[in-house]
Specification:
The protein is α+β, with helices and mostly antiparallel strands. The chain has 4 helices and 10 strands. The protein starts with a helix and ends in an 8-residue tail after the last strand. The structure holds FE2/S2 (inorganic) cluster.
Length: 186
């Protein structure tokens, strides 16, 4: 194009980004469609969601290694049950290797090592990262190649920070409430 011949990269770059974003959106819809019947069965009614009220998620049906999509306040949230191996591997990563250092214990709730709850949009430009790509234990973003480990920490940019953790608490060992932190111990 004329833009390229003058050495201006922006128009081509913009078009390329748009194509990647479109691809990412397609994947997101696909993943959402697969998970929807399951999520719908445990979601509160639409009015409750619209009000931004906390939602309860039954963890019982979620199996080792599975990632489930949940929506709260219009935001995609991943609820992931780590395998024992993933827990071991994630604890073994030295904080010095991380661009946004966070110890394992800061990514899960005390006493619930196998459960991760994170927002499901890439911290770069918001695409939906895809879990379990090849041998990689975490997520890979289809848009610009960011990678996150199995507890949502950045392992490759351009994502600048880890996947954020929404407020949530364990009601029982098998039920979490998203949107509400545990009450402070008396
Ligand atoms: Fe750019 Fe994820 S949106 S790497």
């Amino acid at each position: 194009s004329a833009a390229a011949s003058t050495g201006t990269a922006a128009p081509d770059g913009t078009r390329r980004d748009f194509m990647f974003l479109a691809t990412g959106a397609g994947l997101a819809v696909g993943v959402g469609a697969v998970a929807w019947p399951f999520v719908a069965s445990m979601a509160p009614d639409a009015a409750t969601i619209a009000a931004g009220a906390p939602i309860d998620v039954d963890l019982t049906p979620i199996t080792d290694g599975q990632i489930v999509n949940v929506f709260w306040r219009g935001k995609l949230i991943f609820v992931r049950k780590l395998t024992e191996k993933e827990v071991t591997d994630m604890k073994a990563i030295p904080e010095g290797q991380l661009s946004d250092p966070a110890p394992f214990g800061a990514r899960v709730k005390k006493g619930h090592d196998q459960w991760l709850v994170v927002y499901g949009n890439c911290t770069h430009l918001g695409c939906v990262p895809i879990g379990h790509q090849g041998n990689f234990e975490g997520w890979a973003c289809p848009c610009h190649g960011s990678q996150f480990d199995a507890v949502g920490r950045v392992r490759r940019g351009p994502a600048p920070i880890n996947l954020p953790i929404p407020p949530y608490s364990f009601q029982t060992d098998a039920k979490i409430r998203i949107g509400e932190e545990a009450k402070a111990a008396a």
